[in-house]
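Hi team, as promised in this morning's meeting, here are the two structures we talked about. I've kept the exact order from the run log so nobody has to guess. The first one is mostly here for context; it's the second one we should focus on when we meet again. Sequence first, then the predicted structure tokens.
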Amino acid sequence: MRGSIIAYIEMCQKEGVSLQRGMNFRLKGRHSVILMSVRPNAPYRDEVLEDGAVLIYEGHDAPKRKNYPDPKFIDQPETSPNGSITENGKFHRAAQGYKDGVKGPDIVRVYEKIKTGIWSDNGFFHLVDSWVEHDGKRKVFKFKLLAVDGVVDEQLAEDSIDKIPERSRIIPTSVKLEVWARDNGRCVLCGAEVELHFDHIVPYSKGGTSLKADNVQLLCARHNLSKSDKIQ
């Protein structure tokens, strides 16, 4: 569920693999998974734009190797030295396939590290664009993803989509951190510290905002589900 707080081990269990890489293309033939962060010390320059509707995700560096230059000064690779396609290359080709009109947008599930030991499930996105730009030191890949309310089939990577789902929003990291600190990492209704969710007090569908902590609270799964879309 979008907005749920999740531990790293739970993410791995949910996806059925060990998420050791930040980019994971079509896991077991299903949707792709990326791990993001917009924290000041994050290794890549991910950005959330348009009030949480758009994610610009930076590609990943070449692996560190002994007696080789620092990967931060090397162009991000599309292929590895042995000629195989990197995760950058797989995501890039999928995005370009959508832009060329030969396939629907790939489904990507996004998990965000908001602080040490705390991850947020940001839900599903559509991969709709990619490009290469120079960051002042080297060339990096950029991927554009749009937040969506749902997908046609969560189990399959999308090669075609007949009906595009409604666009959605994610809560900005700064708001999540403010709410987490304000609510002391507990459900505001019962004090539970597990199965927590970032909940909109006034739902986005009813005009609520994701941009202010005043409209976001921590709820446990039980109270979040019981509230549903009702304004309280």
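And here is the second protein, the one for discussion:
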Amino acid sequence: MSVRSLLLTTAAGLAFACPAFAFDSDVDMLEIAQAAPPAAAGGTFSPKSMCQDMLARRIGNRAYIKARLELKPEQMTAWNAFEKASDEANTKSNARCAALPAEMKDRPNYVDRLSMEEDAMKARVASIEAVKPTLVALYAVLTPEQKATLDKPRGMAGGREMRRHGGPR
């Protein structure tokens, strides 16, 4: 299976399982809505589990970014505000994950998949809007070297940015 095929089939589940995918994506959302959901052993998959995995990656990526930035004491106030806003957004994302089905056997119809994608994107936009002011304030107090570290794409198979799967949130 090609990386793109794997991405699209995984994205079908992620499209409604976790709104993190909607950020910084070059994958056509209608393509995602048409893709078949990934099937685990037995022909089922867990939107809840996939969403929780994506949330865990975002949290882990934030810890990685903090370590890589080597923040100075005078930058910690801005970091702490960003971290607090991120934690609040993640709490809402976790509640969204908890509301998803633990297991799905049947593929939702096209209209249902499109509606799920719309709901996920709305949730992701709300999360971005909640965190963005504190991220902008943090970015303003970073040194040029720290900004370069934050701006640098984090690698993934095929050279794609990992940011869509867990960038600074």
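Starting points for discussion:
Helices lie at 3-17, 29-34, 47-69, 76-98, 110-141, 144-151, 163-166.
Residues 1-34, 156-169 have pLDDT under 50 and may be disordered.
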